[in-house]
Specification:
Structural class: mainly alpha
Distance between the termini: 21 Å
Catalytic activity: Fe(II)-heme o + 2 A + H2O = Fe(II)-heme a + 2 AH2
Bound molecules: protoporphyrin IX containing FE
Largest sheet: none
Number of strands: 0
Pathway: Porphyrin-containing compound metabolism; heme A biosynthesis; heme A from heme O: step 1/1
Main location: membrane
Membrane topology: Multi-pass membrane protein
Number of helices: 12
Pfam families: COX15-CtaA (PF02628)
């Protein structure tokens, strides 16, 4: 994922690729190339912020049981909400055909339907706005020749990932209409959450690489890099495990901490056959794994902070980033415990989902700050500023 090999520094990378499109010649002026890099980074950070809000909106949509209220996939015509009573009734009639209506919301009336409709509609509208906030500036920067050629494939890939996220979202929603189902498939929920987080990570990493094309002059100690990588990897696993907790509503049981029904390892742990089903379908095991992974993440983050503070005092930025990571993980841990003890209130569940993105952000910032300079002689390191 490193941009550094091709864009180090961005101005130099831009200088090696004369713009094919019409517009200002970025290769003529390193200062202009740096300005372009900053402008591109600001745009990507804005999109990141929008994706972050989208993750929170997604959490609120799920927790209020709104996600199945729109049964059509209409990327363009669905932009407008129902504008007449006839249209409201048509959508409500559609909703009344699915099991969630019969089993959960029977008889809640058109008013009840309108209550669950709006969050799902805002969630989808926000998705469309993210698409526009990405696509329009992309076209503009491209047409003006302000994108270094080496960056273009990645920006197109991000566009593709964003489009895929819309499709995965719909595939997830469609699973909720199947017979006997009152919620979406947990596997598809995790795929949707995982892709959102991957997209966010790719956007943020690209923006950071535009802002700081060269790794720090002083290489970080090996142990510190190991701890931060461990924290990031464990945090990613914890998030996916959290997706399953949310997906099978495992947060509604075992609402005590740190013990689960008086035991460290709950009695219902690992009884399903075949064994792999315990990882995704057994409430006790799914929740236990999420707790365990979260605890390991917290310990790894503490290890990283310890390693950063033990190092040379010169590396202040590195210490700041790693301490920020520990702070974010500790906050998320506390939010998780509170969410569990209070039996998943909508606001707290939403906050816990949103704060996962904070953990991801701090992990990426720390990892980015620890990048190593490319080895000499591989061609990339020889292009000086
Ligand atoms: C590093 C720490 C943690 C991270 C990164 C994390 C991340 C997540 C994520 C991403 C979700 C899924 C949200 C979704 O898809 O809607 C989730 C759900 C959940 N987490 Fe955590 N979590 C952490 C710690 C904890 C802890 C320590 C507990 C409790 C002991 C906990 C309890 C829960 C519960 C109950 C849910 C389900 C909430 C719902 O149904 O909306 N989490 N977590």
């Amino acid at each position: 994922m490193s941009l550094s090999a091709r864009h180090m520094p961005v101005a130099a990378a831009a200088a090696t690729h004369a713009p094919a499109a019409a517009g200002r010649a970025v290769d003529a002026d390193p200062a202009a190339a740096r300005r372009d890099a900053r402008a591109l980074a600001r745009w990507l950070l804005l999109v990141c912020a929008m994706v972050w809000i989208m993750v929170a909106l997604g959490g609120a949509t799920r927790l209020t049981g709104s996600g199945l209220s729109i049964m059509e996939w209409a990327p363009l015509s669905g932009t407008l909400p129902p504008l007449s009573e006839a249209e409201w009734n048509r959508l409500y009639d559609l909703y009344r055909t699915i099991p969630q209506y019969a089993l959960v919301n029977q008889g809640f009336g058109l008013e009840g339907f309108k209550r669950i409709f709006w969050l799902e509609w805002v969630h989808r509208l926000w998705g469309r706005l993210i698409g526009l906030a990405y696509l329009l500036p992309l076209l503009w920067f491209w047409a003006r020749g302000r994108i270094p050629a080496g960056l273009k494939p990645r920006l197109l890939l991000l566009l593709l990932l964003g489009g895929m996220q819309g499709v995965v979202g719909w595939v997830m929603v469609a699973s909720g209409f199947e017979p006997d189902r009152t919620a979406v498939s947990p596997y598809r929920l995790v795929a949707h959450l995982g892709l959102a987080l991957a997209l966010y990570a790719a956007l943020l990493w690209t923006a950071l690489s535009l802002l700081r094309p060269a790794p720090a002059a002083e290489e970080a100690p090996r142990a510190l890099r190991g701890w931060v990588w461990a924290t990031a990897g464990l945090a990613a696993l914890t998030m996916l495990a959290g997706g399953f907790v949310a997906g099978i509503r495992a947060g509604l049981d075992y609402n005590t901490f740190p013990l689960m029904e008086g035991r460290l390892v709950p009695s219902g742990y690992w009884w399903l056959e075949p064994a792999w089903r315990n990882l995704t379908e057994n409430v006790a095991a799914v929740q236990f794994h999420h707790r365990l992974l979260a605890t390991l993440t917290l310990l790894a983050a503490a290890g990283a902070a310890h390693a950063a503070w033990r190092g040379r005092p010169g590396a202040a930025a590195r210490r700041g980033a790693v301490s920020g990571l520990l702070g974010a993980v500790a906050l998320q841990y506390a939010l998780g415990v509170a969410t569990l003890l209070l039996v998943v209130p909508v606001w707290l569940g939403t906050l816990h989902q949103a704060a996962a993105v904070l953990v991801l952000t701090m992990a990426l910032v720390a990892l980015h700050g620890l990048r190593r300079a490319p080895a000499r002689g591989d061609g990339a390191g020889t292009r000086g500023p």
